Amino acid sequence: MRYMATYDLMETIRNTNQWLGASALAMGSYPAFSLIPNPAFAWMTAWGEVTERTFQRMIVKPDWNIPPVPSLDAQDHLVSTEVVVEKDFGDLLHFVVADRPVPKRKVLLVAPMSGHYSTLLRSTVISLLPDADLYITDWHNARDIPVSAGKFDIEDYTLYLVDFLRELGPDTHVIAVCQPAPLALAATAYLAEEDPSAQPRSLTLIGGPVDPDATPTDVTDFGRRVTMGQLEEMMIQRVGFKYPGVGRMVYPGLLQLSSFISMNGETHSKAFMNQITRVAQGDAEEHDKHNRFYDEYLAVMDMTAEFYLSTVERIFKNLEIAKNEFVVAGKKVDLGKITTVAVKTVEGSKDDISAPGQCVAALDLCTGLPDDKKASHLEDGAGHYGIFAGKSWRRNIRPLVLDFIDANSGDGKPTSKTKRAANKNAAA
Prior knowledge:
single chain; alpha/beta; Rossmann fold; disordered C terminus
């Protein structure tokens, strides 16, 4: 598997399917065929349209497309992005809301590097922008990074977070979603010892594998069953000649996507068959629910081989974070050194990726943190995606996270939650 030919073969298959879809769409759209009363041409056109779009999206980084932010001045403020810190493997991105007073809440949203672009958190960004001065980690596709840029593993990822937090300053509140939860915890502990003045005020960990063994899932079971040698042989390929990162060892996005889809193959097959039917019957739209979801879901990025392998070995197999044995740049990171940063965990009761128990384990690891600086929330009925981007996030979790941020903002002002409690006590 570890050859350029394998990588280029996967890209060739993708490109061929895109071409077949485009050809079917063009052929089925000939005006002459409309004279033939045969529904086969409508179905061929529909299949071509859906197929071309599907395989074309796999190599496209989605746009942020953030809508204007409404405010109390009855105006809609346009949103643009600005790179604050530029690095080889990822940038610190700032969402700039034009002509709006800067909100007091400064939030760093740490996006996962798990096969999708940071735009996977687009709906999360949209929901937070009205109430926060928002930054995000924008990770780059490994296939576009030249070999001369060097390696990038979980230690480098952690040090990137350290640099970003130093840039933003101590009035920052961090929200880490899924994969980066244990590494955001480690970065905070690293700063607690090396640069205490750069620590964030609060850290919210959403559905992350801090202790994967706390509640086993299919993901953790896979990590246990497969040896590192097998993973390297089966999953790692060398970037082909088409991209700037030619020769770099990666876990390809297309290979990751095949794994994602195989986990729920029947559901995805049904979704695409239904979409083809809607297109053939003229009921589909450019921005319908199917296209909105799959335009993002199918857009995958390569991970560096060392990042993927070190994540599996050190986070899932050796449990270095769960055992408080994580080492960064030759220095052991002690999670017990976190004494001032408030930590909150959020989990979903139906999360089959990071099951309940894996994330809340972070609170027990923060042995130096007083109980009044710890909080947790288990969202009943919510799956993995729902706790940061779905209905559960919008209705229940987001308000709780903002309350937690306000309660630990350090400005001494009562939060909305505190006010409600005070009013309730006064009434009693």
